[in-house]
Write a structure and sequence with these properties.
The protein is built from 13 helices and 21 strands. The chain has helices spanning 30-34, 37-58, 60-68, 79-83, 90-99, 134-151, 169-180, 195-206, 215-227, 251-261, 376-384, 417-432, 460-463; strands at 114-119, 129-133, 158-161, 184-186, 210-213, 239-242, 264-267, 280-283, 286-292, 297-302, 315-322, 333-334, 337-340, 354-355, 359-362, 367-369, 372-374, 389-400, 403-412, 437-442, 456-458. β18 and β19 (403-412) form a beta hairpin. Keywords: Ligase.
Length: 466
């Protein structure tokens, strides 16, 4: 049996709710985190058929899918066999929830076990419902507590959760982990009118050690503090952990937040379906990008066409598999995001693979223009490094005849706008590889996002016939 050395490694998962590590230990579970990765992988390979069997036995969704593929969960005993397990895509989950409302026919626990219901806002399609089992919620909290410990959060620390507490799982997941870690949690929330301004008073009063939000929200908070003549460094925040969108691993965004708050930025996050979504997360000893905590969720980086794992060093799309969830377990969920993975010394002793540049963005958001692939995060990074940048921009993509055009409207403070325009034009040309038109607009022209930013307006379908 592989996994004998791994702390509390059993199926179904369950953790001693009174456990806390030795206060001097950098690790929550020293063996699980620092063991030989091949031994860990062998233990995961023993776990996978159990999770797949559970899904097959308890959900018509997975039974249909695997019967159609001629797949028997008992045969998933090699990595080659696992890579042939068909991926799950979000559209299938949405359809399943339309056909079998409200949670779809992939809910694998009895109704009496459901402890939390969550949902998405549905801004990019039909909303998705999440049903979390009681036992799963406890396990999720334990996993997140363990990862927060790895970031340097400790019992008794104040954790300020400043993200939406309605249709966003991020806040709930962060809160549950901090509670399990015996922190003092402030579920402050976000999104209601005047809340950002009031957050400044609460942050000054509570002096939290750790703070959670989206990167966009932290940038907004820094701006509002500046308008109100408060220095965000006075909040005393030591750790700012972010998820939900790219930013914490975008160098200029990260630097801006670290400088404004005099803090340490930590990137984390996969997808709401994959809660415990903090399974991809940096640590205090390995601050860049994210580590893939492979004994919580199995992360693969795959070729987006074949869904076969790409070698370390290569780019691809993250595909996720739960190892501990029993309610709505996801087996090879295709994220449709983009990233690159590596297996290197992480500096913190944990032997997990990593995403050194985090998750860059969604495949759908990548702009394909005149033979180039442009990531919106690259544009963000260029602009934020130029002095005089006003804090927001929009990327406009259009088509005239057969010619695609890309233009950036960027805010500039009262600095020299001609200088700013020149620096932005040449910086964007260098990084994007194309001539990008730059239009300078006044600071505060664009609405700020207090959740996830959306900056690209691709109008090519509408402008095609001109
Ligand atoms: C990210 C990141 C990240 C998420 N870097 N892109 O916050 C985690 C969970 C709760 C979440 O945001 O789930 P949701 O709303 O389903 O969105 C998932 C997408 O958000 C994911 O596919 C990514 O595109 C993005 N995302 N965390 C970059 N750290």
């Amino acid at each position: 049996m592989a996994g004998e050395k791994m702390e509390e490694w059993h199926w179904p998962a369950g953790y001693d709710q009174n456990y806390l590590p030795d206060p001097g230990s950098p690790y929550w579970f020293p063996n699980r985190e620092t063991m030989d990765p091949q031994e860990r992988d062998a233990a995961v390979l023993e776990r996978l058929p159990l999770v797949i069997q559970h899904a097959y036995d308890n959900s018509p969704f997975y039974r249909r899918k695997y019967d159609a593929a001629g797949l028997d969960p008992k045969d998933i005993t090699t990595w080659e066999a696992f890579e042939q397990v068909p991926v799950v895509v979000k559209e299938e989950l949405r359809q399943s929830q339309v056909d079998a409302p409200p949670f779809g026919d992939y809910i694998c626990v009895p109704d009496s076990e459901i402890h939390h219901i969550h949902g998405t806002s549905g801004t990019t399609g039909t909303p998705t419902g999440f049903a979390m089992g009681r036992r799963d919620w406890e396990v999720i909290a334990d996993n997140h507590a363990r990862i927060l410990w790895g970031m340097g959060v400790r019992p008794g620390d104040t954790v300020f959760v400043s993200a939406l507490f309605s249709l966003y799982l991020g806040s709930w997941g962060a809160m549950s982990g901090a509670e399990r870690l015996r922190c003092k949690v402030f579920p402050y929330g976000a999104g209601a009118s005047g809340m950002t301004s009031r957050a400044i008073g609460w942050l000054t009063r509570t002096q939290p050690k750790a703070f959670y939000s989206t990167p966009s929200y932290a940038l907004r908070l820094a701006e509002v503090a500046e308008q109100e003549k408060v220095d965000p460094r006075e909040f005393g925040i030591k750790i700012m952990f972010f998820s939900g969108e790219p930013g914490a691993s975008v160098p200029a965004v990260r630097n801006k937040i670290e400088k404004a708050f005099d803090t340490r930025v930590v990137d984390c996050g996969t997808m709401a379906e994959m809660t415990p979504f903090m399974s991809a997360s940096a640590t205090d000893g390995s601050p860049d990008g994210m580590l893939l905590w492979q004994d919580i969720v199995w992360h693969e980086i795959c070729d987006p066409d074949t869904y076969r794992t790409v070698p370390y060093g290569d780019e691809g799309t993250p595909v996720y598999t739960h190892l501990e969830r029993t309610s709505q377990p996801m087996i090879r969920l295709a994220s449709k995001d983009l990233s690159r993975w590596e297996m290197k010394d992480n500096g913190c002793g944990r032997t997990y693979p990593s995403l050194p540049s985090g998750v860059y963005g969604r495949i759908d958001d990548m702009i394909h223009i005149r033979g180039e692939n442009v990531y919106p995060t690259e544009i963000d990074n260029v602009l934020r490094e130029i002095s005089g940048y006003g804090g927001e921009h929009r990327v406009l993509v259009s088509r005239t005849g057969s010619m695609d055009e890309i233009k950036v409207r960027a805010e500039c403070t009262d600095a020299d706008t001609a200088e700013f325009e020149k620096a932005a034009t040449s910086g964007l040309h260098r990084v994007v590889g194309l001539r990008v038109g730059v239009e300078v607009v006044a600071a505060n022209t664009f609405e700020r996002s207090e959740h996830k930013a959306k900056r690209v307006i691709d109008d090519r379908e509408h402008t095609q016939k001109k």
